[in-house]
């Protein structure tokens, strides 16, 4: 397994988060001749709504084999989306930790047994279309434990030596997204990483409240708005410290890459396509707090 130093290292909790939060940033970097690598914490294998639509079965009739097939399909979707924004298959790494369980993995410490994901019934990392990182690099799967997921995160930061790291924000209200942030921030501290860290926000408040405005609006920026007296997005500074413009061509390319995630678009078309704006926005956390 060959790993080369990169300029940008993107951590995504699930396949599609990298497009939602950073597709334009990735395209800009590649256009400047920079190396980009995307790491997916999960294979997206814990999403009953997507599996129900994909297989035409109610949730109670879905079996582990269905969710493992969903993981394989979501990896294929990730490869297709990546190609649309200039990434190659070797620019993607799948860790294979559990979708809808990454927060539980983060809490699995000490002598606790590995977490078992209820959808796949797995307790260790695995590949779908592509093998998981731990199996490729160490020769065996990693149990669903914090020490393993943190170790994989640290290993990738050390091997890839990025100038910039991108990960979901601590304020993201999806538990997997908050856990991805926690793993990366802890790895940053423990590896002594000194480059830049940027965060992006996918979930904030109810699904209909963020992003805003709703719908495909490639000519408009992201906006905050009041919902029952609370400013959404929640718990992040506004305006965001970094607003990177996207051209109409980039916004269109981002939209096409997002549409490659057919299993996701079928479930949440308005929510996902509301990330098609004239910009991408980022925050700069302090990992030493």
UniProtKB/TrEMBL annotation:
Ranges annotated as spanning the membrane: none
InterPro entries per UniProt: GlcNAc_PI_deacetylase-related, LmbE-like_dom_sf
Domain of life the protein comes from: Bacteria
Cross-referenced Pfam families: PIG-L
Record PANTHER family: N-ACETYLGLUCOSAMINYL-PHOSPHATIDYLINOSITOL DE-N-ACETYLASE, N-ACETYLGLUCOSAMINYL-PHOSPHATIDYLINOSITOL DE-N-ACETYLASE-RELATED
Protein name per Swiss-Prot or TrEMBL: PIG-L family deacetylase
């Amino acid at each position: 397994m060959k790993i080369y130093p990169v300029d940008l290292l993107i951590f995504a909790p699930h396949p599609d988060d990298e497009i939602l939060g950073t597709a334009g940033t990735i395209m800009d970097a590649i256009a400047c001749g920079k190396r980009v690598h995307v790491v997916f914490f999960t294979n997206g294998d814990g999403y009953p709504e997507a599996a129900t639509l994909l297989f035409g079965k109610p949730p109670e009739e879905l079996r582990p084999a269905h969710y493992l097939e969903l993981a394989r399909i979501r990896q294929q979707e990730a490869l297709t989306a990546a190609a649309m924004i200039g990434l190659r298959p070797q620019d993607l790494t799948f860790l294979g930790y559990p979708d809808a369980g990454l927060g539980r993995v983060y809490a699995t410490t000490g002598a606790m047994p590995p977490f078992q994901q209820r959808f796949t019934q797995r307790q260790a990392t695995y590949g779908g279309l592509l093998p998981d990182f731990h199996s490729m690099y160490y020769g065996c799967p990693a149990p669903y434990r914090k020490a393993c997921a943190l170790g994989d995160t640290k290993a990738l930061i050390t091997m890839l030596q990025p100038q910039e790291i991108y990960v979901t924000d601590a304020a993201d209200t999806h538990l997997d997204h908050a856990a991805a942030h926690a793993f990366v921030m802890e790895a940053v501290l423990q590896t002594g990483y000194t480059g830049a860290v940027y965060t992006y926000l996918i979930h904030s408040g109810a699904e209909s409240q963020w992003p805003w405005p709703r719908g495909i609006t490639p000519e408009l920026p992201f906006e905050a708005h009041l919902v029952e007296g609370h400013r959404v997005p929640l718990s992040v500074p506004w305006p965001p410290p970094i607003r990177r413009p996207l051209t109409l061509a980039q916004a269109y390319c981002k939209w096409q890459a997002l549409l490659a995630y057919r299993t996701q678009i079928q479930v949440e078309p308005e929510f996902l396509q509301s990330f098609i704006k004239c910009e991408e926005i980022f925050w700069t956390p302090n990992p030493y707090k």
